[in-house]
Amino acid sequence: MAKGSIVYKNILVIEDNHAILDVITLILQSEAYKVTGLNKSIDMMAHIQESEPDLVILDIMLPDGDGRDILKQLRTNIKTEHIPVLLISARYTEENIQHGEYKPNGFLAKPFDIDDLLDRIEGILAGKTY
Prior knowledge:
Elements: E1 10-14, H1 18-30, E2 34-38, H2 44-51, E3 55-59, E4 61-62, E5 65-66, H3 67-75, E6 85-89, E7 106-109, H4 114-125
Parallel strand pairs: 1-2, 1-3, 3-6, 6-7
Antiparallel strand pairs: 4-5
């Protein structure tokens, strides 16, 4: 494959904890993803239209909303309904998460293992659901 033809996947991370956002950003950049980080959801739709992410990593507990409501907003908008979403949460686990009406493409409880995060991202980008 020619060097110029590499396609970098665009990932939008919405996480209000700056340390976690920084770590996720550094890890993903080291894996050659293009990363945009937001610490609240308020400007999210403008960012999504601008950057057209291939994946959104979305914290459930944000200062300006619940990630599950934001997921619903994404799923019910024709421009964003196709974008895969990985929900992350420190409050919920696989066992007690209540997704509501709209299911994400994956869920990961914090703290998570970096390899698990990368595996989920690669899987979701390849069309899998967790």
